[in-house]
Structure formats: C-alpha cells, structure tokens
Amino acid sequence: MNWTSKNNYIDKFIQGAQLCAKNSYEVLEWIPYNKLSSINYYDKGRFSEIHKAIWLDGLTDSWDFDKQQWNRWNFQSGYDVILKTLNNSSNLESSFLDEWKYHYYCQKYSFSRFIQFFGITQEPHNLNYMIVMSYCKKGNLSKFLSDIIKFKWQEKLQLLKNIILGLKVIHELNLSHNDLHDGNILVSDNYELLITDLKQNIDEKANESYEALPYMAPEILKDKSYTQASDIYSFSMIIWEFTSGISLTNNREASILEGERPKIIEGTPQCYVDLMKRCWDSDPKNKSNVIELEQKLPEWIICIYEYYRINKNGNDELEVPNVDDKLKNDMLEFVKANNALECLLYSSHYRNGIEIFIM
C-alpha cells in the first residue's frame, strides 16, 4: 500500500473494498486533497457542509493488466464531484463510517440506484474527513418537484419505481434507510433518481431529525425504532409530493400522531390515492411493502404505455389486451389524469393557494 489516510478505520475500509472489488464501480480510493481543484461551497445539510470540486485524476474505468493499475475516465479534464464533510471527524471512529459502509454495500448490490461513492479525502486545515461522491447538477428531488408536476403519469410512476428499486436493495440487505425524504434523493443528468444518506447508527431512536419531521412515521415519533415499514411511510410522502409539486413543510408532531396527513390533490387518480394511503397507514402491519410497490408500479407503467401505443392515432377506442378489469380501470384513471393535466398546465393559476394539510 503506497497511501494512508492516517486513520486505521478508513484504511481498513478502503483496503477491504479494493481487495474485493470485481469492477470499477466497487473501487473505493483514498483521494489526496491535492488531487482536487476548484473547490467551492455548494450547499449545507443538517449535519454536514457540501462543496463541489474537480477530481483531477477522475474515476477508475478499467484495469490495465500490463501496468497493474486502473485506467482513468476523463483524466485529462478531471471529473466533477461533491465533497461531503464529516463534521468533527479529525479523530474519526468506526461509527462515523457506518452510514457510508451501508451506502457502499448497497452501491455494490445495485450501483445504478445509489449516488456513486468514490472514496474519502481529508481537508488539510481542519483535518475533517470528506466523502467524495458523484455530482448531480440537477440537485436533489425537492428542487425538481416543480418539473415533475408537469410530467405525464407514466413518467412520474417510472421515477417512483426508481426509488422503490433502490429501497428494495436496502431492505433486501436487511437494512432500512431511516432518513428518506426528497433532500436525500438526487437527480442525475438522465433523470435517474439516486438514493443517498442512509442514516448511520440505524438502531438508534429518532431524536434529532426534526427538519425531516413530515416524513417520519408516527411510530418513530412515539419513540420507537426505525423500521423498514417507517421507510414506506416516508416514501408515501414522496408519492404525495409527486401530485403537489412542492415539498412537505408540516412540522407539527402532534398532528401527525393524531393521524393528520397531506390533503389529497384534486384530480389524483383514485388507485394512486389508495396506494398512497396504504403506505402512510398509522399501523405498520397495514402498510404496503417494497414487494407490492415493485409489482404495482411497473404494472401501471406498462399498461399506460400500451394504451398510448395502441391508440396512438387518437382513437381512444382500442382496448389493451390481457388486462383485468381492475387494472383497466386504473389505467383509464391515469389516462384521464393525463388529459386533465394538459389543460391545467395552460392555467396560470395552477398550483396557487393549495391548503396542504387537513385533519
């Protein structure tokens, strides 16, 4: 080894990843700070400061067997990355890395569902360690909702399916995200939704995430542990945001415990409303799970696209074959909602003055 982070926990983590890597997506690196340029403040999270930078070497691409080293992609001009500071981490302990260990395991399992984690560096002045990961210039989902509201329903469902496939990976690894909200989902250049920021110390009680309070399941607010079912509740709030085009802002813990949920937006397909309500049910036993959601969303997507394929000449008379009555009704609800959306988009008053929460 010709590098060291000067931290035993980081060295072991990166070395283990390098020894087990089967492809370039599984490679983690210690990235010297002098290999980063144009470092500028980008944003601030609840627990960290975020900078944008150029990684001069660029990410690994393929293994050169002759030179016994990784070839680099885009190494001449560098590669845009995000640096996420781990606050107060100059004497980093193993628990500080938990969140990113979990992220790495999920990334290995399905790299296309998670923001790519490239490695770790260290800021030379305050000695805080920094996570180096992909840069998504479209930002997070909360900044993208005003665009999503204009999408056709089959496109919205496809984006939700991307989130569920990532959440399925997390749950199949016997983990839970524990902090799922629109700020922890990033939007790639090709409109893929990528999950980040799995909460570290997943066995801890919820005690500090009040900026994300609207996404927290009632059982968490009753001082119970995070579970996979609480992830589904958080997902239900994102489902609602796809109908409203705005982020949730309710920070009233008591109202959530009393059963208050976001107001159903007029014109939302009833089948979608029914699914959303199952996801935000107060009883974890009654909630949908990733298996049901993984099955239902593609069913709807396929049927809607097939409807438009068959009726591409605008006849709206031909039926999609091999579809039962329930699925047919669901499909027609989405088609009707698409038609209504086209009319609403012409209204300059659309999205003004919506009352977000009701009892």
From TrEMBL:
<protein>
    <recommendedName>
        <fullName>Protein kinase domain-containing protein</fullName>
    </recommendedName>
</protein>
<dbReference type="Pfam" id="PF07714">
    <property type="entry name" value="PK_Tyr_Ser-Thr"/>
</dbReference>
<feature type="domain" description="Protein kinase">
    <location>
        <begin position="36"/>
        <end position="301"/>
    </location>
</feature>
<dbReference type="GO" id="GO:0004674">
    <property type="term" value="F:protein serine/threonine kinase activity"/>
</dbReference>
<dbReference type="InterPro" id="IPR011009">
    <property type="entry name" value="Kinase-like_dom_sf"/>
</dbReference>
<dbReference type="InterPro" id="IPR000719">
    <property type="entry name" value="Prot_kinase_dom"/>
</dbReference>
<dbReference type="InterPro" id="IPR001245">
    <property type="entry name" value="Ser-Thr/Tyr_kinase_cat_dom"/>
</dbReference>
<dbReference type="GO" id="GO:0005524">
    <property type="term" value="F:ATP binding"/>
</dbReference>
<dbReference type="InterPro" id="IPR051681">
    <property type="entry name" value="Ser/Thr_Kinases-Pseudokinases"/>
</dbReference>
